[in-house]
Design a protein that fits this description.
The complex is a heterodimer of chains A (422) and B (291). By secondary structure, chain A is an alpha/beta fold. Chain A folds into two domains: 25-92, Alpha-Beta Plaits, CATH 3.30.70; 120-419, Zn peptidases (Aminopeptidase), CATH 3.40.630.10. In chain A, 39% of the residues lie in helices and 17% in strands. Chain A has helices at residues 2-11, 34-45, 73-82, 94-112, 126-139, 186-202, 207-215, 226-234, 287-299, 329-347, 356-359, 367-373, 399-419, and strands at 25-30, 52-55, 64-68, 86-91, 144-151, 157-163, 174-179, 217-221, 302-310, 314-317, 352-355, 378-384. Chain A has an eight-stranded mixed β-sheet, with helices on both faces. In chain A, helix 10 (329-347) links the parallel strand 10 (314-317) and strand 11. The radius of gyration of chain A is 28 Å and the shape is elongated. The termini of chain A are far apart. In chain B, a hairpin with a 6-residue loop joins strand 7 and strand 8. In chain B, helix 1 (59-75) crosses helix 3. Chain B has 291 residues and is an alpha+beta fold. Chain B contains three helices and nine strands, in the order H-E-E-E-E-H-H-E-E-E-E-E. Chain B is 18% helix and 31% strand. Classes of the chains: A alpha/beta (422), B alpha+beta (291). The A-B interface holds A 122-123, 232-233, 237-238, 240, 255, 272, 274-277, 323, 325, 329, 337, 340-341, 344, 348, 350-355, 357-359, 361, 386-396, 398 and B 1-8, 10-14, 30-32, 34, 36, 38-40, 57, 83, 111, 113, 173, 175-180, 211, 213-214, 235, 237, 239-244, 268-269.
């Protein structure tokens, strides 16, 4: 039975790795006798057709599955026809099938991670996000608690998830993950809630996050601007600022990321209430900002502050308010580059790295600059996907891929903080 | 234009800006054909012909974006839209009285992300920014990204598809809040982007650059005679000010013919509202045209 060995050898040539199979088909060929086998082996043997046997018959009258590259479809069909070999096409487009599977898998992965059927691959209302935060705290009571740190201008609660393995009243060094400060940057809030579930689920399983949490606490604020977020859902998808009233002006809101006390009202902000980068009447005038400032200052032991925004695919560090080089710029740059590489390793998404002022534009009164100037050394801004094609309106099917790659970047940073506590 | 950018040169004081970025072609060869420089790459600094003037960071990026908007508009082909991949090299010269001239070479990619092929077009351009006034003067040539016949074929398919859409179009925003564009409406987005390219070209300066954020309304979609007559409102996102600018655009398109565009944008701060008209592919002086 030489032909068994022959086909057996060919199976070893199965294609692994990340090759693409656009338009490639799988033929199921019926071979009824030795004569047909030898005809088929003739076909499979031809170098230029590049056929690939998936399943060889162990006995007669069992079909053979062969992967036929799209370029060889015609010649193979002609050959089979001319030799009177019966066949059917069981897979019409291998790449499409693989893509579908990938999609489904990812979908299910996202589904699995949720209880209450919270779909991480979709955008949610404020209530739903708050409920899910509560749910995470409920699912992981030893690790996570939902903490109210204040309220918004329109009196909505500001909730933070605290992840801590500390005993008693220990005030461990801490990481602050900030998201959704600009309400229209929906991928930020979406990434944050995914990250919350990820931190909780992976603790005790993933060595990195486990060791991080043994040494530090993580505080995650998924919606730093709740009023703005609700407004983007109900009235204006592209709203950026808070919803505070500006006396004497018809225009509403201040840019919460120009409102921090770091070169407040300097270059890269506006004093016009109608501007998208209006800094507000004074530093911390926005209650949403003040709530975070008060909490962090009261805590007194934060070592890392990361602010998630979109879009542009950038990973930046201080300063935004000056071109002057920050004292720790070299170290922050090195960490950021490593984080960007880790992020890119998942799907090839490339991020540019650099100090805010020269990487994007001058910006005064920003959260990250404030953090840095208040002894929170590891201060970074992420501008998440994309680079302008969809911009703020990033399709929901990119949420989980974005969150997953961003997670690798976040971990890199947090691991460095863990290993360089001061 | 959504850029896949090179990292800007290392931060320094506001002074002479590096005017020439020479980036190894090797940096272009990434999996997706996207030529963003891997993190860590930098170009040598060299500034011939550069006077001691203030440059915004990313001047070359600005010039590339302006050039591409103009190129896309002039090509008039919704199936052959291009996006910036990477700036390869460039130099700038400044005339403090008149403005700033940028000569540059850059690579492009397909606008439509579904077209995943790794074809990089290459363009060389001369862009003249007129002291922060709009409408940079542009001279740009690009290598072929898509074979001419194929492009005409694609355009014609798009055109036929659009002709078959039920009017009036039962649609509000494209994309919707969740970033979704129905596949049947994708050609509308591409055509809108083509029209917006004209507007974005006119409005780009050394400091301002734009992205098309959303089609907020379709006012009219007519295909009575052969031309597609499209009247819509688009929201442009200006990056450095973060402003959203609604622009009403009225375009006429037929495959192979030059695009006709009229527009009117609402500006936040400036007292004058910006608008313009373009017929044919010649660079005509702007006419104020109010709807």
């Amino acid at each position: 039975m030489k032909w068994i060995l022959f086909f057996g050898a060919l199976i070893g040539l199965s294609v692994c790795g990340r090759e693409k199979f656009f338009g490639d088909q799988v033929f199921r060929i019926n071979v009824r006798n030795g004569d047909e086998i030898s005809k088929l082996s003739q076909l499979v043997n031809s170098d230029n057709l590049k056929l690939n046997v998936w399943k060889s018959p162990s006995t007669f009258s069992r079909p053979v599955d062969v992967l036929v590259p799209s370029v060889s479809l015609q010649p193979v069909k002609s050959f089979l026809k001319s030799q009177g070999l019966e066949y059917s096409v069981t897979i019409k487009d291998l790449q499409a099938l693989l893509d579908n599977e990938d999609e489904e898998m990812q979908h299910n992965e996202g589904q699995e991670r949720s209880s209450n059927n919270f779909n991480y691959g979709a955008y949610h209302s404020l209530e739903a996000i708050y409920r899910e935060m509560d749910s995470i705290a409920g699912d992981f009571p030893e690790l996570a608690t939902r903490v109210k740190i204040g309220h918004s201008f329109e009196n909505r609660p500001m909730y933070v998830l605290k992840f801590s393995t500390a005993e008693g009243r220990q005030r461990r060094p801490a990481v602050w993950l900030n998201a959704g400060i600009h309400s229209r940057e929906w991928i930020s809030q979406a990434t944050a809630i995914w990250t919350a579930r990820k931190i909780a689920s992976d603790y005790g399983k993933d060595p990195a996050i486990t060791t991080i949490l043994e040494k530090m606490d993580i505080f995650l604020l998924p919606v730093a601007n709740p009023d703005g977020y609700v407004y983007t859902q109900t009235q204006n998808r592209l709203w950026r600022k808070t919803r505070s009233v500006n006396p004497g002006s018809p225009c509403i809101g201040a840019d919460p990321n120009r409102n921090w006390n770091a070169s407040f009202a300097g270059e890269g902000a506006s004093d016009n209430p109608c501007s998208e980068i209006y800094h507000g009447p004074h530093a911390n005038s926005e209650v949403e900002v003040k709530s975070v400032v008060d909490f962090i200052q009261e805590h007194g032991n934060f070592k890392c502050f990361i602010d998630l925004h979109s879009y542009s695919q950038l990973l930046m560090y201080p300063y935004g308010y000056t071109v002057k080089k920050a004292p720790d710029a070299d170290e922050l740059d090195e960490v950021a580059r490593r984080a960007a590489r880790a992020l890119a390793s998942l799907s090839g998404t490339t991020y540019q790295v650099g100090p805010t002022c020269t990487t994007v534009y001058p910006a005064s009164g920003s959260s990250v600059d404030w953090a840095y100037d208040h002894d929170i050394k590891y201060a970074f801004t992420f501008e998440l996907r994309d680079t302008g094609h969809y911009g703020f309106l990033l399709p929901a099917n990119q949420i989980i891929p974005t969150a997953e790659e961003t997670w690798l970047g976040l971990k890199t940073i947090m691991e460095h903080v863990r290993d360089n506590l001061y | 234009m959504p850029p896949r950018r090179q990292p800007p040169p290392a931060s320094g004081p506001w002074g002479p800006r590096p005017a020439v970025l020479l980036l190894a072609p090797l940096l272009l060869l990434t999996q997706q054909g996207v030529a963003a420089a891997p993190v860590g790459a930098e170009g040598p600094e060299d500034s011939p012909g550069l006077q001691d003037a203030e440059f915004p960071s990313g001047l070359l990026q600005q010039a590339a974006r302006a050039a591409l908007h103009f190129f896309n508009f002039r090509a008039g082909s919704p199936s052959a839209l291009r996006v910036l991949a990477a700036v390869l090299e460039g130099r700038a010269t400044v005339n403090p009285k008149k403005g700033c001239q940028v000569d540059l070479v850059f690579t492009t990619d397909h606008y439509n992300p579904e077209v995943g092929e790794e074809h990089l077009g290459k363009c060389s351009a001369r862009v003249f920014f007129r002291n922060q006034k709009p409408r940079p003067a542009i001279n740009v040539t690009c290598t072929r990204l898509i074979e001419k016949n194929k492009r005409q074929e694609e355009d014609y398919l798009l055109y036929k598809h659009m002709k078959q859409l039920k009017t009036p179009l039962d649609v509000t925003s494209i994309p919707d809040s969740h970033g979704h564009i129905d596949p049947s409406l994708r050609p509308i987005w591409d055509l809108a982007f083509l029209g917006s390219s004209y507007v974005m070209w006119e409005k780009t300066t050394q400091f301002l650059h734009y992205y098309m954020a959303q089609i907020s309304s379709v006012n009219q979609w007519k295909t009575n005679d052969d031309t597609i007559d499209f009247d819509y409102t688009v929201l442009l996102h200006e990056f450095s000010t973060q402003e959203i600018i609604p622009c009403r655009i009225h375009l006429g398109w037929y495959p192979g013919k030059p695009l006709k565009v009229k527009y009117h944008c609402q500006e936040l701060q400036t007292p004058e509202e910006a608008s313009g008209t373009e017929e044919g592919s010649a660079v005509a002086p702007t006419e104020l045209n109010n709807f």
